[in-house]
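hi! just following up on the protien thing from before. the input was this:
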Amino acid sequence: MQSLPDYLQAGLRLVFVGFNPSMRSAAVGHYYAGPGNLFWPLLYASGLLPEPLIFAEDYRILEFGIGLTDLVKRPTRSSAELSPGEARAGVLQLQTKLVTYAPRVVCFNGKGVYAWYTNRPVTLGPQDETIGPAQVFVVPSTSARNGRWQRAEKMAYFQTLRQVVERYA
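and the predicted 3d structure came back as:
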């Protein structure tokens, strides 16, 4: 199964990093395409996007100074199917991409993906570390599988992220 392309370029104000493509996203060829994934609605409702987009329009994200990539490009049913070796290799590749493209803010979509990146437990929200010049932020996973967080709670993190992006824009 084919993976998803990176949507990256120099000068982005924000880049979102996911764990890896879901089987659904890879099958349809678009980011955050899973039923119930709140990524696209939260992006618009938080003010990070000036107009609503759906997963099939993910290629337009660069128009708004936002990029998309993943820690690992191999699609799986669950991130638990990724091996530690894949994740370690993904960390090196991701770090190279982020330093090369140098966005102002990098947002990890889920604590788990940032924990893989840092190899330590992490918290949600703004982080003390930077990646190259980029400020780092972590939101709760927007996946429908992340039922621990209600939509309103996820929205609060996206609104705080918008404030961080505006501060560094």
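The first strand starts at residue 14 and ends at 18.
The CA atoms of residues 46 and 158 lie 6 Å apart.
cheers
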